[in-house]
Amino acid sequence: SAAAAADSAPERERLQIRTLWASLSNDPRTLAYAESLASRYPAEPEGRYHLGLALAHAGEFSSAIDQLRTAIASDSSMLASALSGQAPCRACQAMQLVAQAYIAMDSMAAAHRWIDTWGAAGGAPASVLGYRAVAHDLSGNREAALAIEHDEVGRLALDEADRAIDEPRAEHRRGPGRQEMDRPRQRQAAGID
User: Fold this and answer.
1) Percentage of the chain with pLDDT > 70?
2) Which of the two residues, 87 and 135, has the higher pLDDT score?
3) What distance in Å separates the CA atoms of residue 46 and residue 37, rounded to the nearest whole number?
4) 73: left (phi over 0), alpha (psi -120 to 50) or beta
5) What is the number of other CB atoms lying within 10 angstroms of the CB of residue 31?
6) Most CB within 10 Å of its CB: which of 109, 123, 138, 149?
7) Is 62 in contact with 110 (CB distance < 8 Å)?
8) CB atoms within 10 A of CB 86
9) Contact predicate 11/40, CB 8 Å
10) Gap between the Cα atoms of 187 and 160, Å rounded
11) Smallest Cα–Cα separation from 50: which of 60, 35, 72?
12) Mean per-residue pLDDT for 22-39?
């Protein structure tokens, strides 16, 4: 198993493997491993991210937010790469977890501010909009939540549907004997129009 392989790895990798494995398997030692990783390698976002995640799972949301924000700050160059589609990063995941922690703490004003920051940083539009709708709904602003769901998320879903419709058209061009899909009819059948 991965945990057994960790025993022969160098210390940093051993801690990373144990922390990740403990997190994935809901091992109660996750927090201890994450604390060790974060304290021994404080400049690396991986440890801070896992510590923030473990603290959030333990219900220690304020401490989790501190760790996650540190991971985001130390992973800012990776954030730029990830947002441009070049690579995944812990900062992107940490930004979402911070929003979740503020919502879990029922701190909707802080959640709104963070979600705005996340969106301005270029977070995944559907995720940002989804969290924004949830924060509005939990703040008692159901109309704003529904407007986001209807307008913005609907627009994103429409874009997704357009891509799905265009794929069979491209396949039609490649394959003889296929009829081209009638786009308006397909949109209507999908409940889009």
Assistant:
1) 69
2) 135
3) 8
4) alpha
5) 20
6) 123
7) no
8) 10
9) yes
10) 11
11) 35
12) 92
Task: Inform me whether the pLDDT recorded for 192 exceeds 60.
Answer: no
> What H or E segment, with its residue span, contains residue 31?
helix 30-40
Q: Which amino acid is at 23?
A: S
Q: How far is CA 121 from CA 3, 30, 43, 115, 125, in A?
A: 36, 29, 22, 10, 11
The span from the first CA to the last CA of the chain, in angstroms, equals: 51
Within 13 Å, how many C-alpha atoms sit on residue 79's CB side? 21
| Residue 21: HSE in the Cβ half-sphere, 13 Å Cα cutoff | 13
CB-based contacts of 109, cutoff 8 Å, min separation 6 = none
Q: Which amino acid, residue 36?
A: S
100-155 pLDDT, tens digit per residue, is 999 999 999 999 999 999 888 877 777 888 888 889 989 999 898 888 877 766 56
Distance CA 20, CA 46 (A): 10
For residues 12 and 46, is the Cβ–Cβ distance under 8 A? no
- What lies within 8 Å, CB to CB, of 62 at 6+ separation is 105
| Helices and strands, counts by H and E, the chain | 12, 0
